[in-house]
Specification:
The two termini are 13 Å apart. This protein is globular. It has a seven-stranded antiparallel sheet with strand order 2-1-5-8-9-4-3. The chain is α+β, with helices and mostly antiparallel strands. A hairpin with a 5-residue loop joins strand 6 and strand 7. It contains four helices and nine strands; from the N terminus they run αββββαβαββββα. The chain has a single domain, classed as Electron Transport, Fmn-binding Protein, Chain A (Pnp Oxidase, Chain A, Roll).
């Protein structure tokens, strides 16, 4: 296989840019995620790809909840804030207005929309990312504008 062609081809798959919120035992954290898709209408399910070595995955495995904060096209700076690693869990949320949602996972006040999910399955023994299947148990729309995509940011993730 041509490794460069594979990388370019896989990067052509469109991705949104989201802030994924997690909560466990009173601890909150959030990170920028791009591997998310809806996988079922009934029940409403989404699949989230998350690095297996992340602390956030450990929180999701224990608490069985996460939130997806959907950003608008003009919110790249907010996405950048959550890309940076934090030395202390929750540190990235200190300066960002948020509230706990129905599941306890953080919902960003400035997100254009959100969904809250309860974990139904975690899969992918072979890869470097786990696939977390979550059932949407709450949703909200604050501003019906176009969502931020990876192409809008100029970033590359995957391939």
């Amino acid at each position: 296989m041509d490794a460069q062609a594979k990388k370019i081809a896989l990067r052509k798959i469109p991705h949104g840019v989201y802030i994924i919120g997690v909560a466990q035992d009173g601890q909150l954290n959030a990170f920028t995620g791009t591997w998310l898709t809806q996988v079922s209408f009934t029940p409403p399910l989404v699949a989230l790809g998350i690095r297996k070595d992340s602390h956030s995955l450990s929180m999701i495995q224990h608490a069985k909840v996460f939130s997806v904060n959907i950003l608008g096209k003009e919110q790249k700076p907010l996405a950048e804030h959550f890309v940076k690693p934090a030395t202390v869990i929750g540190e990235k949320l200190k300066t960002v207005a948020h509230r706990a949602g129905k599941t306890g996972a953080p919902l960003l006040d400035d997100a254009i929309a959100f969904v809250e999910c309860e974990v139904r399955e975690i899969a992918n023994e072979l890869g470097d990312h786990a696939v977390v299947i979550g059932e949407v148990v709450e949703a909200g729309v604050r501003n019906d504008v176009p969502a931020l995509t990876l192409i809008d940011t100029g970033w590359h993730y995957g391939g």
